[in-house]
């Protein structure tokens, strides 16, 4: 064990080690907005803005529920990365099974509450009747995947905590690849529309979960045997729940901001709601480019904290930020030059195309305004400084709400998009200010 711990502390962060995690995970994360674009494109082929708006609003409600539980991915990543940095194989296993236990219990509860969640979402969105009907159909079906989705979060968190970007890419590729194929077959070829898109996701999540559990279980059989009592260690569970609570509040605040964004867009009319839905997919594409390097920051910063190695920590922060800004600039240029063509591919509605083209530049620049926020999130997740993440996210949400109240009434949809940029900038710079204080005591 002493030799293992010494080797764990000896690691060096290089451009290669950053890219070995970031590149495959960027590709993996890009399959998620690609799935969103395919979902939107499939429903968009029916030429009905109400169905498109209903899908967008339903997907948002789903994200509010499930991204709130994204701590099962990010919290697991940070804890596994730190155990990996210490060379503690048993704790890596224990963290994983604790996360799976939470995932199964929470998933069953959410699946049972699907009808209530759908009704609450319909009420919150306050959209026209046909949009509201599509929302209800989508949410009721898709929430049946709750236990599978949350378990997949735990599996991915474990894989990324060990810095295995290639395996993470494979798992995400299988998950979203199955979703995309079934979405086209069920939603478009069979004409099921929104219903087909929802059932495609349920099936994809289930099959991906089976594959992930098989891979991890096979690995654990070759590792030291984990005593069952260690999984249920009260102190460790309390620490994990405390970490997860803060990340959950942070994630819920993030989704609340996106929910307010979508709801305000709905107040501008069905066509504007649909156009913003198309552009938000492009925002997610830019975000998932950045998430690859944020994931590298999570693993490398967490590993450095576990090994108590200051030099690798500082280098991980610098290199992931450098690469993040480079990709953010590239993503912005791609969307500025080719975004109109992508809009035309996603929807056949001429009205939606015209509105989306008008506001395309706002979506294109979200990458640059959000790069620091994404990268700082990665550092703080890996270091498990969850309280700071929670507090700075709440501050950012307040800034977003104030900007929304001031700008949306005066400038319409332009003010809405400007408020989103305020939100991203406040998140990034507030965490950067806190980072300097935390580093002084971490090592």
Tags for this model:
443 residues, 89% helix, 18 helices, globular, transmembrane, mainly alpha, 2 domains
Written description of the protein model:
GO terms for molecular function: antiporter activity; xenobiotic transmembrane transporter activity. It holds the Pfam family MatE. It is a multi-pass membrane protein. The chain crosses the membrane at residues 18-38, 50-72, 95-121, 141-161, 173-192, 198-220, 247-266, 278-300, 321-347, 359-380, 392-411, 417-437. It comes from Mesorhizobium amorphae CCNWGS0123. The protein contains 18 helices and no strands. Helices cover 89% and strands 0% of the residues. It is globular, with a radius of gyration of 21 Å. By secondary structure, the protein is mainly alpha-helical. Helix 3 runs parallel beside helix 13 (270-307), helix 12 packs antiparallel against helix 18 (413-442) and helix 14 (310-346) packs across helix 16 (366-383). It has helices at residues 2-9, 15-44, 49-67, 71-86, 89-112, 114-125, 129-142, 146-161, 165-189, 194-221, 228-231, 234-267, 270-307, 310-346, 350-364, 366-383, 386-411, 413-442. The protein folds into two domains: 11-232, no CATH class; 244-442, no CATH class. The protein starts with a helix and ends with a helix.
Write a short abstract of this structure.
It is built from 18 helices and no strands. It has helices at residues 2-9, 15-44, 49-67, 71-86, 89-112, 114-125, 129-142, 146-161, 165-189, 194-221, 228-231, 234-267, 270-307, 310-346, 350-364, 366-383, 386-411, 413-442.
């Amino acid at each position: 064990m002493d030799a293992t711990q010494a080797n764990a502390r000896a690691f060096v962060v290089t451009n290669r080690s950053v890219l070995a995690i970031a590149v495959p995970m960027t590709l993996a994360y890009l399959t998620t907005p690609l799935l969103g674009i395919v979902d939107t494109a499939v429903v968009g082929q029916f030429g009905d803005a109400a169905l498109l708006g209903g899908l967008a609003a339903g997907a948002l409600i789903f994200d509010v529920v499930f991204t709130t539980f994204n701590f099962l991915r990010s919290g697991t990543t940070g804890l596994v990365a730190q155990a990996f940095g210490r060379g503690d194989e048993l704790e890596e296993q224990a963290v994983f099974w604790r996360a799976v236990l939470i995932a199964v219990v929470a998933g069953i509860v959410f699946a049972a509450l699907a009808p209530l969640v759908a009704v609450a979402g319909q009420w919150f969105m306050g959209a026209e009747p046909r949009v509201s009907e599509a929302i209800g159909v989508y949410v009721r079906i898709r929430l049946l995947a709750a236990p599978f989705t949350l378990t997949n979060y735990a599996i991915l968190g474990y894989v990324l905590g060990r810095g295995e970007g290639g395996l993470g890419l494979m798992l995400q590729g299988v998950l979203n690849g199955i979703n995309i194929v079934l979405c086209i077959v069920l939603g478009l070829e069979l004409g099921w529309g929104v219903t087909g898109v929802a059932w495609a996701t349920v099936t994809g999540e289930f099959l991906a979960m089976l594959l992930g559990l098989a891979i991890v279980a096979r690995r654990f059989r070759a590792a030291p045997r984990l005593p069952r009592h260690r999984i249920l260690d009260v102190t460790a569970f309390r620490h994990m729940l405390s970490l997860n609570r803060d990340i959950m509040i942070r994630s819920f605040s993030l989704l609340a901001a996106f929910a307010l964004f979508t709801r305000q867009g709905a107040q501008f009319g069905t066509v504007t709601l649909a156009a913003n839905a198309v552009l938000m997919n492009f925002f997610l594409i830019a975000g998932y480019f950045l998430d690859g390097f944020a994931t590298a920051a999570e693993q490398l910063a967490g590993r450095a904290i576990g090994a108590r190695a200051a030099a690798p920590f500082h280098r991980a922060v610098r290199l992931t930020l450098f690469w993040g800004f480079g990709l953010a600039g590239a993503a912005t240029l791609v969307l500025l030059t080719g975004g109109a063509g992508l809009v035309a591919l996603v929807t056949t509605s001429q009205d939606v195309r015209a509105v989306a083209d008008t506001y395309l530049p706002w979506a294109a620049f979200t990458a640059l305004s959000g790069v620091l926020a994404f990268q700082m999130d990665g550092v703080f997740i890996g270091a498990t400084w969850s309280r700071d993440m929670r507090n700075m996210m709440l501050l950012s949400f307040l800034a977003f709400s104030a900007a929304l109240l001031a700008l949306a009434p005066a400038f319409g949809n332009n003010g809405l998009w400007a408020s989103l940029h305020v939100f991203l900038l406040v998140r990034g710079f507030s965490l950067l200010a806190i980072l300097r204080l935390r580093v002084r005591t971490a090592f």
